[in-house]
Amino acid sequence: MDTGDRLLTPGEVAALFRVDPKTVTRWAAAGRIGSIRTPGGHRRFRESEVKALLEGGLDFDDEVSPAASTGMPERRPSH
C-alpha cells in the first residue's frame, strides 16, 4: 500500500490540525474533508488528502466560535 493512501483515524487527523476529534468528524459530515467508512461504520481519512489540506489550508471562515455553538455569550474582560 502506498503511504499516501494510508488511512488515518479522526484522532490522528485532529492531532495534525490541533483540534478535537469531534471537530474532524463535523468537518467530514459537512463535506469539508473527505472520509470513508469502515465496515464497522468508523470514519477514516486518506493521508494524502489530509496532507494536501494541511499544506493548502482548510477554509475556517464559516467556523462557529465555541461560545456561539453553546448559545452562551462570549466572555469579555470587565475592564
TrEMBL record:
<feature type="region of interest" description="Disordered">
    <location>
        <begin position="57"/>
        <end position="79"/>
    </location>
</feature>
<dbReference type="InterPro" id="IPR010093">
    <property type="entry name" value="SinI_DNA-bd"/>
</dbReference>
<dbReference type="InterPro" id="IPR048048">
    <property type="entry name" value="BldC-like"/>
</dbReference>
<protein>
    <recommendedName>
        <fullName>Helix-turn-helix domain-containing protein</fullName>
    </recommendedName>
</protein>
<dbReference type="InterPro" id="IPR009061">
    <property type="entry name" value="DNA-bd_dom_put_sf"/>
</dbReference>
<dbReference type="Pfam" id="PF12728">
    <property type="entry name" value="HTH_17"/>
</dbReference>
<dbReference type="GO" id="GO:0003677">
    <property type="term" value="F:DNA binding"/>
</dbReference>
<dbReference type="InterPro" id="IPR041657">
    <property type="entry name" value="HTH_17"/>
</dbReference>
<feature type="domain" description="Helix-turn-helix">
    <location>
        <begin position="7"/>
        <end position="56"/>
    </location>
</feature>
